[in-house]
Write a structure and sequence with these properties.
20% strand, alpha/beta, 6 helices, five-stranded mixed sheet, Maf protein
């Protein structure tokens, strides 16, 4: 459960920030559901539009144009730029297509998660099924499962 992962981050004093597109702030909400989370979460961003990704995070517009906003390259750039802005121990980015239509030639349920964990950046490609809400929930839960593995 995500609460246990957040409690571990608090215990280890590992700070975290997020740049969320497909999840629209859900990951940050889940973190702040846990008492004491203000010790580790100082700032996060909902960057739902391409413009927000470019102007707030500094994502390379050329990457969006070349690969599409739902791509491994954009997820990685989001995580890297978030790390540059916040300097947190863990920087998470999420971009994807929750449907109902194909986006950037990516099927519904295609999600990319970028995680900069103590300066080691990894990007994960997910293919999820379900409703928009289920895809967002599965994405958020994947993030916490992956952080748990990295701990």
């Amino acid at each position: 459960m995500y609460q246990e992962t957040v409690k571990k981050l608090i215990l280890r004093k590992l700070t975290i920030s997020t740049a969320e597109s497909i999840t629209g702030g859900l990951i940050s909400k889940m973190i702040t559901d846990v008492s004491g989370s203000s010790e580790i979460l100082k700032e996060s961003y909902v960057v739902y539009s391409n413009d927000a990704k470019i102007t707030i995070l500094g994502v390379d517009a050329g990457l969006i144009e070349k690969y599409g906003v739902v791509s491994r390259e954009v997820a990685k750039d989001m995580a890297v730029k978030l790390k540059m802005i916040t300097g947190k121990d863990i920087c998470v980015s999420v971009t994807g297509n929750a449907g109902p239509n194909v986006c950037d030639d990516k099927p519904v349920g295609r999600v990319y998660v970028g995680i900069d964990f103590l300066d080691d950046v990894n990007v994960y490609e997910l293919t999820l099924d379900g409703s928009r809400e289920e895809i967002r929930d599965k994405t958020a839960n994947f993030v916490f499962d992956k952080i748990e593995e990295l701990l």
